[in-house]
Every structure is written in C-alpha cells, then in structure tokens.
Amino acid sequence: MQESFHEKILILLSYVMIIIIAIVIYVFFIDKKSVDNYNNEFSQSKNQEDKLKNRTILFQQSNENSPAKHILIHLPEKEIFISTLHPAASLYEDVTDYNKVKECFDNLKKILKEKNIELITVRSALKLNKTALKRLAFKSLKYEISDDINFNKNSKEYKIFLNYTKDDYKQEIINKLSEDQLVDVVLNNPKYILAPTNLNTFIEPKLISFNPVGNLIFCRDQQITTKKGVVIGRTRSSQRAGEHIIMKQVFENLNSNILGILSKEYDENAFLEGGDFFVVKNDFSLLGVGLRTSMKGAAYLMEKDFLGTRYMAVIYDDEDMDQQRMHLDTYFNILSDDFAIVLDFNEVQKYYPNKKIGRKVYLFDNEAKSSILSNNKNIPKEIGKYKLINVYNEFYVFLEEKLKYKLIKVTHQQQIDYMINFLNIGNNEIISVNKDLKLLEQKTNINIIYLEFNPILNMYGAMHCITQVSRVD
Predict the structure, then answer these.
(1) pLDDT given for residue 238 in this prediction
(2) What is the reported pLDDT for 398?
C-alpha cells in the first residue's frame, strides 16, 4: 500500500514536470516568435528606407486605369488610439483598433507585392531626411508655461524651471530621439503645460496633451497627382490642418515633382482634397467641387496650369453637401476604359426630397477659342487658358456622351457599404473592400480582389482613400 502511494506521487510529479517543461518551451517559442516578428518588421522598414535613398520617384498619372507603379500609404500607430477615444470629433465613423488596422495593411502589402507594385510608407519616407524630420518634430513638440502659477519668480528654483521650458532644452531632447521617435512626435503633436515646483527637478507637468494626425491614413486627400506631378492641397477640416506639411516633406524626400502648394495666401476660400480628383481617358481631369473641395481650389489648378490635360470637368455639388458623398470617389470610380461605376442619384433622391442630390458638370477646354456663360455665378467662363465650353445638367449624360463610359449604377446602401471606393491598379484589376463588387467580374471582364477592411471603414474611408498612386516608373 505504501509503495503504491509513493508510485502515485512520482507519477504525479512526472506529469507536473512534463507540463512545466511544455510551458517553458511554449513561452520560449512564443517570445522568440514575437522577437522574430519585431526584427522582421524592423528589417523590412530598414530595407525600404535603403531602397528609397537617393531615388527620384515621380508621382504622376495619365489615367486612373493605367497600371500602378508606386503606392504611398500611411500605417498609423499610436495616433489611432488617441483618435478613436472620440470617433466623431476625430472624423471617424466608429471605434477602431490599431492591431486590426495593421492586419488590413499586411494583407494589402501581400497583394501589391504579388503584383510587383512598390509600396512606400509615410514613415519610411520621412526617415530619409533626418535633418528635415528634426525640424518637423521641433515644431510639433510644444512646451508651454502654465497660466496658474503661484511661485516666487525671483527664486533660484524658478530660474532653473525656466531653463527646462526653452527652445534650447527642447532642441537638446529632439537631438537625442531616434528617427522613429521623431516620427511619433510629428504624428502626435505632444504638448506639455509646465509649472515650477520645489521638488526634484524643480519642474512638473500640469497637463500632457496630444493632437494626433489620426486621418493621415487617408493618403489620397492631402494632395492630388496629376499628369504633371503633385499638387499639395488644403483641407477644410481643422482636424486635418497639419497633414499637408507632413506630406510635402514626404514628396520632397522622394524627390517627386511638387508643382505647387495651395495656401490661404492664394485665396482663403481655396480648398483642394485628393478624393475629389481623377485623371481619366481622352485627356480629361475630373474634380468634384462641394463639401470638401471648393471652386477656388479648382481655379488654382487651371490658373497655374498644373493639370496637364486638355479638359477639366468640374463635378459640381451646391445642395447635397453630405458626409456620405463628401468626395467624388465616394460616388464615382473607374472600373476600366469601358466601364465606370456611379451612385444612382435618382434612387438616393427618394431619401432626400427637399434637396437636389445629383451633380452638374461644367466642362472647360484649354484649346477652345471661345467660352460660354454659365447660369452659376460661382463658375467663371475663363480660368487661365481654360474656357468653359459646356454645361451638363446630369453627371450621367456627361459620362455616357462625352467620356463614352458604360455605367453601372449602385444603390444608396451599396454606396454606404463602400462598393464605389475601390482601387484600380491597372491591367484590368481592382482591389475592393466590398465583396459584392465581385458580382461584376463577368460583366466587366476584370479581376476583382476582395479585402476585408472593416477596421479602416470605421475611420470613414476605404481602399481608394488610403492610397496615393503613381502610374509612371
């Protein structure tokens, strides 16, 4: 009986040891896998920076349907967490999660790699010029003295306190940060409200706040890519005000051809966002004007001759002004040289009986000898070399008669579900976040690749919104 009891104890201890050894091995390999993943990501980032050094990458496009050569994206990190704590104020539709957003980007990376399309990240591009990155970080990091100070300003402690609030100290800190830390500063705009104290270093933070660029993920909007090059735009929303400065540095680091930078000095009512812009077949540029882009922004492009196309079509909205249809790429897109997809305005009109949902088109030509008058006081008959030659009361008529597209119309709900906001990568291939779009494959003779993208959809954007594309080598 005694021997039996000892045997049982030994057997039990053996099982316990086996379990402990298994746990140790499991933890070791999981930790090793995490380290390997981190090292792999770091290595990929370093490799991309090395590939980008001393190169010229011209962001230009002749047609939305031509093959994509380079795609610029921004994979957000810490700024998502801060922004998602109040989605509405951050221009998000709902709460989202960084890890799930990253999974979406990882899947997109795999597709682009298979298609031999070079992927460039904003972070890697910013790290190409550390001197410029330090300048951006210095402007982004704020040290301010608290208004609520009850302290002897003639004391030794107060003088020491002041030394830690000055630009010299801030520059000293900036100089010690790594490149990735500098990028984090630029993306999150930290601010310290500081006050003196009698303890420790004689200084304490009363408040530490951040103003993250939580919408930089939508790389389409801060600029447009024309046939000639890049035009840095100007956004209406205060939440996005600093994004164009970051993207300007990105394109400078890539040695891209920056044609111009729209600012309030040109006209305080001039706004230009990339989601409103397309270059399409037959030498046409299309620009949506309405909730985000203004007619003054359209005039800037024509006046400065930045488009490189003979025709400029202004797709005009003066009544709808709805967030669901804020940009041209939310209600129109190019499937191929033959097919375009567009919102069924007549179906949507049923939901909004008191305002006009459809769009008019004002067509300009830079080779026309004469112009016509429009019935809209906001539309000049001549801008630079461009002259107004026609007005289409219906967007559909313009697309069918002038551009010769076969139209596929989508419903209000399909538009809300981002059926229109896909990315055309050329060679008759589309990357879509709406799986129902695949139903069009046979009809249009194109290959439609579906990606689950809900974490990014929660931020009020989809595949076309997150990408800035160059279609030249």
Answers:
(1) 86
(2) 98
Query: Is the pTM value of this prediction over 0.85?
Result: yes
Can you tell me the distance from the alpha carbon of 29 to that of 14, in angstroms, rounded to the nearest whole number? 23
Q: How far is residue 335's CA from residue 122's CA, in Å, rounded to a whole number?
A: 27
Q: Please name each of the domains of the chain with its CATH number.
A: 70-124+215-470 (3.75.10.10), 130-210 (no CATH)
What's the CA gap between 254 and 342, in Å, rounded?
34
Q: From start to end of 197-310, where are the E strands?
A: 203-210, 223-225, 230-232, 258-261, 277-280, 284-289
pLDDT tens per residue across span 81-94: 999 999 999 999 99
Q: Which residues pair with 277 in a beta bridge?
A: 287
Sheet holding 190-196, edge to edge: 142-145, 190-196, 203-210
Element (H or E) spanning 124, and its range?
A: helix 122-126
Of 323, 328, 324, 322, which is closest to residue 273 (Cα–Cα)?
328
- Burial (CB < 10 A; 0-12, 13-18, 19+), residue 153, is exposed
**Count of residues in the chain:** 473
Amino acid identity for residue 243 in this structure = E
Specify the DSSP element, H or E, that contains 10.
helix 2-52
